[in-house]
Amino acid sequence: MKLMADYDYDLRAFQETLMLTKAFAVKSAPDMEASFHGLMGRPIERMSAEQIWDSLITLVLEDPESAQRIEDMELLYIHGRYIGRLEDIIKKVHSFKTIKEYQEWVIMKYREARDGTGPKAPAPRPPTYIAGHGRLMTSAIQGIARASELPSPALPNHFLQKFGQSDRISIDGATNEGSLTQTLQMLNGATQKIVTTPKGIAIRKILHRKETNAEKGALLFQSVLTRQPTDEERALCAKELDDGEGKGFANIVSALVCTPEFLFIY
Known about the structure:
By secondary structure, the protein is mainly α. It is 44% helix and 6% strand.
């Protein structure tokens, strides 16, 4: 306070003095030892929401690289009112010769959406966001598909939203921090139903192979964690798959997808 009074409460002069102190110089210099992570490689980091989702989808779909886009996703809306199919809209926009033609068409579409005089949607729209600020929003997606094939942002209760997908309102809105909601989702939420319950999922076909249960357990490890199990892990898998009630597969897959080894990039 004495220094501030000596400067006659000149904030600029006071800040200049602070910036010349050793404490400020040390604070602004990076501490290389503190940032050292102990590995001769990339630091360990958690996967993003999209990466985790796509990793789970790989266990479910026969060909995750194929187009899984659902029909409802091709329907475009303004403020919740149907305006047409995506393919038709693209062709229409490309057909305009002048900016004025395009502007007049956009104004017409907004009026149709406002007055409800536009084309009728081929199917009822599932409950979803009402588009705000004039943005074109696709309808809700029901089903399993890669993150790139789903609307962004996803619905509020979707896996992607729970695991930190960006809300697309702010530039850096995504996060890969863990939470209790994510833990519950992985332990007893929809994630377990996706990767263990359906009869036709890709990873379940391992059970129909002619190998021993120990070999099937090794294949599950390779499918989920992309590595061979240790001798102890192989024995545990064989014991689980020998279970007469048929819960061994679900127990193994559920345990593997909840491990840090699955959720983190090493």
